[in-house]
Amino acid sequence: MNDTPPSAPVPNPDTPPPAREPLPPLPERPNIRDLFEALLRRPAELARHQASGGTRALKSFVILSVVSMLVFGFVLGTFAYGTQLWAAPLKIGAGLLFAGIICYPSLYIFSSLAGCRASATRLAATLGGMLALAGLLLLGFAPAIWIFAQGTSSFGFMGSLAIGAWLIALVFAFRFIKTVLKEHGTTQRSPMTIWSVIFLLVTLQLTTSLRPILGHSDKLLTNEKKFFLAHWSETFAESLPSESDKSTASSDQQKTDR
Hints:
Layout: H1 32-41, H2 43-51, H3 58-77, H4 84-113, H5 120-151, H6 155-183, H7 190-209, H8 228-239, H9 243-257
Helix pairs in contact: 2-6, 3-4, 3-5, 4-5, 4-7, 5-6, 6-7, 6-8
């Protein structure tokens, strides 16, 4: 007598999928590891935690943002090596803190206009969380940027790559800070949109004011005042091959072919 194997059960399309196991709640006093995971995996819950009085995380946020920026700056410094291995991390880390400090008063003003009821201390912790999230995202871009830093000599391309990574990081960072401020009672979007533009312009201008970050120079900082769009356009123009370079390369190629 042959045994018939049992047939596999037919799934019911109306049966809902099994619910995922919920993540454990954030502790009352989260450490750096808890904040690291919460910033990346569940920023909305971290936003609610900050809104409920989690101001003790400010110091941890500052440490996360500074360490992440130092590592990202070191990766950019490998494009030119030399003094840039320590100068680029110093400029990027200090520039990030400087941007946060000078933009904090305007954050307090515009968040108040938007209806936010957060205290000055909680608002500072929120800004620290925003910078920490941006730094962690840049830390994720660092390996890919290092590959290009070792494989190309184009200042224009490397500058575009670094600025593009920063813009992507700011998109998620601005989303985080708006989520936190919404938990604090923010009802209007326009004031925070204006502040986001201000913060973006400040950080972009610092890329020019703190130059050089990618290339070599006899000075640690330049004394020349220049708008960042003018500096970028000149950098792109210098990175493109000139007509004389093209003709020289063409003649060299013809000699090689002969």
